[in-house]
Amino acid sequence: MSMNTEHQLGDWRDKALRFEQQINRTVIGQRQAVRDLLLAVFARGHVLLEGQVGVGKTTLLRAMAQGLGGQYQRIEGTIDLMPSDLVYYTYLNSDGRPCVDPGPLLKQGEKLSIFFFNEINRARPQVHSLLLRVMAERSVSAFNRDYQMPHVQVFADRNRVEKEETFELPAAARDRFMMEISIDTPEEDAVLDALMFDPRFHDVDTLVAGIDRDIIAYYRLNELAALIQQNIQTSPTLHRYALELWKASSRPGDFGIRLSDVEMGELIQAGASPRGMSYFIRAAKVRAWLEGREMLLPEDMQAVFRVTMAHRIFLNPIYGYRKEELMPALVRGILEGIAAP
User: Fold this and answer.
1) What's the angle, vertex CA 31, arms to CA 30 and CA 37, rounded to 5?
2) What class has domain 232-337?
3) Which residue ranges does the chain devote to CATH 1.10.8.80?
4) What pLDDT is recorded for position 162?
């Protein structure tokens, strides 16, 4: 690594850690979720958020957008939402003439940094299909032309409580998300007390405005992400370790992993995809960079394994009803059962 590259990566790391500190003062009690989101930002991956209502998901994403300096757009998933609603909307102006204006995906043009799809599982599969193109290609077709969104990251929220009138995301859609992050109600009494009684947390607009704007220039993130991936080094032993983790996600029984009351040969319908494993390594390299290292270590892989892998391991239907119990146990079993170099 050249001295100039080392200095550039070190300078960005300092900014990233300052950004993380400010977010943790804005959205308290969510340190792990904040760290995972930061990893996704610098790995340029889309994120699926899951949690109860009112735990701070929107505040967290608005804080992210404030620090990145780009534009933020949000849409609510509803059962009658159409793909066109993301692209344009029609209305009658004051003269009674029909007009067409850009929708949330097009309104900010190339300055769009964060697109938040709230309650994505309420939207129909046709809407998911359009979103998949945006996630894969960072572009969308409208009005006989393609619109580019080179800096956009999609953050989608899935409400885990209400299941009525919802559409489960298909495997192809879930696999496009680098991470699935749980945002849970904090458990510490001091944090809960502050959220209830400290007026600072009751005014979200003022709270978000406290984040320094443009700490991280959104339009340079693609360049920086490539630099991180090129300069964090790996080794043949780490390659073998990652390969064994991958194989264990499909055939855990072959590696001596056992779960209570489970026939291991029938547990997995599909393991992680090659794309999922590339996301896993990208996130692990960003974690190594944030820790101030030039070399990827097993602890980096272990730190991001659950958040990048659990949502792309699919259980057979006979075990589907036990997913909330079995998936954490499986991830833990893989990490404990595969010897790290």
Assistant:
1) 90
2) mainly alpha
3) 232-337
4) 63
